[in-house]
Amino acid sequence: MSGKFFIRTFGCQMNEHDSERIAGSLVSQGLSKASGIEDADVVVLNTCCVRENADNKLYGNLGHLKSVKESRPGLKIVVAGCLAQKDKDLVAQKAPYVDMVVGTFNSTRVGSLLSDLRSGSTLVEIWDGPKPEEGFDNALVAERDSLYSAWVNIQTGCNNNCAFCIVPAVRGAESSRPFGEIVKEVRALARSGVTEVTLLGQNVNSYGRDLTLGIRHGRLAGDIEYYAGEAWREGPRRLAPLFADLLRAVGSVPGIRRVRFTSPHPKDIRPETIAAMAEVPSVCEHLHLPLQSGSDTVLARMHRGYDSKRYLTQLKAARESISDLAVTTDIIVGFPGETETDFEATLEVASEAEYDGAFTFIFSPRPGTEAEAMGDLAVDPELIAQRFEKLKVVVDRSAYAKNLARVGRIEEVMVEGPSKRSEDVWSGRTRQNRLVHFSAPRSLEGSGFFFVPGAYLDVRIDYGAPHFVRGEVLAVNYLPKAERPRILLTSS
User: How confident is the model at residue 448 (pLDDT cuts 50, 70, 90)?
Assistant: First the structure.
């Protein structure tokens, strides 16, 4: 099969990695990447449904693609991901010109299903859960966008029952990938030149609990180390998560300089995970710890499993154990029943937590969630908008203070590429995941100095803003493999 494909991704890092695997399935069928929709033979929309505007984005994009397909009847349109899993046949009813609809459990079958498409009809294949005979969706076939940084899936699904969250309905129950398979993938990535990996899961802190339970009950037979790792095999074999062991194992893979993870759940964060973060040099000093609300009443209504005191205690313990730790969070404004007192509690916790950054969201009811049925407790949208702006002031103030405190420090920055706004300015990330902008030093102008995506530089920070810092390059600590493409920076 020949032709080109283009994938548009909506939503979280999990979706980004799913798109890499969908791309791998298409490449395996002989297709290559297109630069955009205009030169693509297959367009895949990999969807999200965490918030209501995700639905609008999908059907807005499909409306545009309808006109494209009318001018190019041979174009194949595929809808994949969480919204496809939720809406199922509804996608084809609303947009009958779509050629294929696949869900979250079989998204990597896109490539193999292309040959089954028939003109004038929509192929809908939605699995209700993973199929044992298919095994864990193997990320080794992913067609990755980055040569130096990689997502690594460690689990799918979620066993929590947060009242606002649709993820369990579209991703299923929690299922951990075998320990040995993850480490094998990371080793392969390191051999290929990848130096940074991000471990992905809906609740990474609970990784492996289902594996240890499966071994104990005889559902997982064979090589115990493959399923649960050497440390668990040689230890007391407790029925406990394996995430701390995984951090240590992945962090010890030769060539891996940075290990990140997302997302943990505050109720499941354990002392051994904090210890691994503190003791393993390659595990980055960044913890994303979703608060969602600072009100104990709202947290209980959300079924989060912790209160504000417990959250702040955990945060304090992490900062005391991990030197120079950066902390980011998620906060929802306007959850049903949120009073002014509840919101003030959120402001107080956010202020005390002094976050390095925060993702703030306005509550959006999702179909099938418990919160959807709380319409009688809905908060006035105008009031929500006012609260949202107040919260933004608090979190931006602490982020600005944290970034100003970096001025004068020398940070190790991994180069990502030219800035979106100027090719003369480059961007990268510190170990704390701060965005850094920098230019070539004047002393190196005209010397053939190269900035290379994936390189590690020493940068002295000389400016701080709420959402980024800026600095001057002092030294190059690491360059990727020689065969990788290098881009010459032209400075003014």
Answer: very low
Q: Which of 39-53, 376-390, 433-447 has the highest mean pLDDT?
A: 376-390
Using a 10 angstrom Cβ sphere, with 0-12 exposed, 13-18 middle and 19 or more buried, the burial of residue 478 is middle
CA-nearest of 252, 213, 249, 253 to 229 is: 249
What is the domain partition of the chain in residue ranges? 4-133, 146-284, 410-488
CA 489 to chain centre: 30
The predicted-structure confidence for 450-467, as pLDDT tens digits, reads as follows 578 899 999 999 999 999
Q: Are 5 and 46 within 8 A, CB to CB?
A: no
Could you report the per-residue pLDDT of 329-355, keeping only the tens digit for each?
999 999 999 999 999 999 999 999 999
pLDDT band (50, 70, 90) for residue 419: confident
Q: What is the pTM of this model?
A: 0.91
C-alpha to C-alpha distance for 213 and 98, rounded to whole angstroms: 42
Tokens of 13: 């890092």
* Domain 146-284 falls under CATH 3.30.750.210: yes
Query: Hey, CA dihedral for 228, 230, 235, 241, is it positive or negative?
Result: negative
Region 410-488: CATH code: 2.40.50.140
CA distance 146 to 490: 23
Q: Token digits for 423? A: 């090719």
Tokens of 68: 């494209």
Question: Strand 435-439 and strand 487-488: pairing?
Answer: unpaired
| φ, ψ dihedrals at 61, nearest 5° | -65, -40
Closest C-alpha to 415, from 144, 149, 142: 149
Q: Which fold has domain 4-133?
A: Rossmann fold (3.40.50)
Per-residue model confidence (pLDDT) at position 484: 42
